[in-house]
C-alpha cells in the first residue's frame, strides 16, 4: 500500500528471525558464516529439485479440476531432498551439539525467506492496492521458521544411533508429515 | 555480529556485481499494481467554438472516492448514480472544488424511468455551459462498479455521522479498517487536437435536358452531440435524417435511371460534418462553392435547399423557414405539396410551417437552413421538433429506441412524394400512379441504416477523414449517385472556429486502499507481537523446564 506498509510486513517477517538469532545464543558461537553456508546449501538443493522436476515430470495435460494424485505425490516425494539437505548441512557443518540444529534451521529458513518472500513483498506491498495476503505471507514466514527448526530437530533425532527404539516410530511419522505437508493439505 | 556480517556481505558483493545491478534495476522499476477494478470512463465534452470555451478542462485523476452525500468533497472523486443526480449536487461538488465527478449510467438506459431521463436531457446543456476545471466522467455501471459505489457510500455516510453515540475506540477501529478506494486514470492531460479535418460528402444526380437546369439540394448532417462524445449515438438527431437522405438518394437514383422518369432537375445530396458545432461543414462548403469556384451547381439556379434534421419520431412535422416562401416559387410548391400529401394520405400526421427569423446575434445558428439563408439561397429544414433548443438534439440519451421506424418510414414517404410531385410537376393523379410504383420506401433498408448509424458514437471529434463511418457513407453514396466527392474542413490556424480536445476516453482503475491510521494500527500490533515473541524466546528456558516437568512422570513410568 505504501512504503510504510511494506515496512510493517518486512518487520513482521524478519524480526522473529533476528530475535531468534540473538536470543538463542548463536551469536556467541560465531555461527553467522555457517548460517550463510546452510543458506547456500538450501539454494543448491532447490536448484537440484527444480531441475529434477522439470526433467522427469512433464506438465500434466489433464482436465482443469482433477487433481493428479499420483503426479503430485511424486512431486512431494522430491521434497525428501529437503530433508537430505538438512541432514547434509548438519553432518558437515561443524557445530557443537544441539546448536547444529539451530544453525542449520536458521540458515535454511532465512534463505527461504529471502528467496521466496522478499520480492513479492517489495513489489506487492508497496503498491497502491491493499491486500491482506501480504500480512499473511509475512506471518507465514514466522510459522515456517518454527517449522524448519522442528524439522531439523526431527532429522537430527532420526540420525542419532542411540535413540530409544520406542521413539523411532513417532519420529518417522513426524518426518513423513513434514514432507507431505503440502500434499496432505490439498 | 555486524562486523562479520559486513565482511561476509562485502565478499559476496564483490563477486556478484552483475546480480546487484539487476537487483538495483528491479528496485527502481515503476510499480504497477493490479487494481480492484478497471473500467472505461468517457470524459465530458471539451471544445472551443468561435473562441468560446465549453466543458470540462482537465483530465487527470488520482483521488479518493466519495459519494455525493459525504461532508468533505474537496480533492475527492465524487461518484454519483444517474438516478441520484441533480444539478444542485453537481454545483455543490464544484463549489467544494472536488477532484472529479464520475456519473454512473446504467448499462441499459431503458430501465431508467422516463422522468429521470428527461431531467438529465434538460441538464446536459447546463452541464456544458459552465466551464469547469473539474474533470467530469461518465461510466457504464456493472456489478463491480456498483459494489464499489455501495461500499464508498457506506463509508461516506458513516464519516458524516461521526457524532454518533458510539464509543470512540470502536469508531476509531471502524475508520481505521474501512475499505477506501483510490481512483486513478491512465492517460495524460488533455490538449487540443491540431489539424482535425471534418469531412463532408456530396453527390449528385444530373437532370435530363441540357444546361441551366434548376437544382434541388438535400442536406443532412451526420454527426451527433451529447454531453460525452463517446456516448453520443444520436439516433434521432441526426441518424434519422441521414437515413432519410440515403433512402431518398436510392429512390431518386432509380427514377433517374429510366428515361421516362428522368426529370429536369439536378439533385444534389450533401452529408455535412460538424453539424452540431454550428454547421461547420456546410459553412465551408458554401464558401468554397460560391466564393472560390467558377462554376458550381450552387451558383446557378437553385430551386430550394431542403435540410433534414430529426425525423424519427412523433406525429408532427414542421417545416422551419426563415422567410415565408413567396407564391409561385418552387419553395412554395414544396410547401403546398407537403401539406397536400400529409392531409390526404397520412391524416395522423400534423404538418405545419414554423417561421423563425435568422438571429445573427446568437452564438450559434438554429437550424441548418440558416447557413444557406445567409448566402441568399432559399432553404428550409424539415423536423419533427418544434424548437431548435429542444434537448433531444444534444443528448446522450438519444439512442436507438428513440427512433420509431414506422414513423420514420411514414415521414420518408411523405417527403419522397412531395418532392416527386414538385419535380415532375404532377397535378393530375394519372401520371402520379406511374411514378408511385418506383417510390416504394423500403422499411428494412431504413431499419438497417438506423441500426448501423446508432451502433457506434458519431461525435464530430471521433470521426476523422479515415473513420469507417465516413468511408461507408461515401461508398453508399457512390452506389447511387455520381460525382461523389469529399470536402474537408480544417480550422483556421490563427483564428480557429472550432478546437477539439483529446483524452475523451480513458481507463480508470479503482484501487482498494486502507486509511493511513490502519498502517499505524498495524505497526502497533506488530510491535506488540514482536515484544511478546522476544519475551517468549528470552524465557524459553522456563517454558522448556515446565514442559519437562509435565512429561517427566511419563518418562519415569517408562
Automatic annotation (TrEMBL), chain A:
Keywords: Cell membrane, Endoplasmic reticulum, Membrane, Transmembrane, Transmembrane helix
Subcellular location: Cell membrane; Endoplasmic reticulum membrane
Mode of membrane association: Multi-pass membrane protein
Stated family: Belongs to the TMEM147 family.
InterPro entries: TMEM147
GO CC field: endoplasmic reticulum membrane; plasma membrane
Signal peptide per UniProt: none
Natural source organism: Cyprinus carpio carpio
Protein name from the UniProt record: BOS complex subunit TMEM147
Pfam families: DUF2053
TM region positions: 101-123, 143-159
From TrEMBL, chain B:
InterPro entries to which the protein is assigned, alphabetical: Nicalin, Peptidase_M28
Compartment(s) where it occurs, according to its Swiss-Prot or TrEMBL record: Endoplasmic reticulum membrane
UniProt superkingdom: Eukaryota
Transmembrane segments: 520-547
Signal sequence residues: 1-35
One Gene Ontology CC term in the entry: endoplasmic reticulum membrane
Keywords: Endoplasmic reticulum, Glycoprotein, Membrane, Signal, Transmembrane, Transmembrane helix
Organism: Cyprinus carpio carpio
Gene Ontology biological process terms from the UniProt entry: regulation of signal transduction
Protein name: Nicalin
Main subcellular location: endoplasmic reticulum
Gene3D superfamilies, alphabetized: Zn peptidases (3.40.630.10)
Function recorded in the entry: May antagonize Nodal signaling and subsequent organization of axial structures during mesodermal patterning.
The keyword Endoplasmic reticulum is assigned to this record: yes
Similarity remark: Belongs to the nicastrin family.
Pfam families on file: Peptidase_M28
Topology within the bilayer: Single-pass membrane protein
Annotated ranges, domain Peptidase M28: 214-418
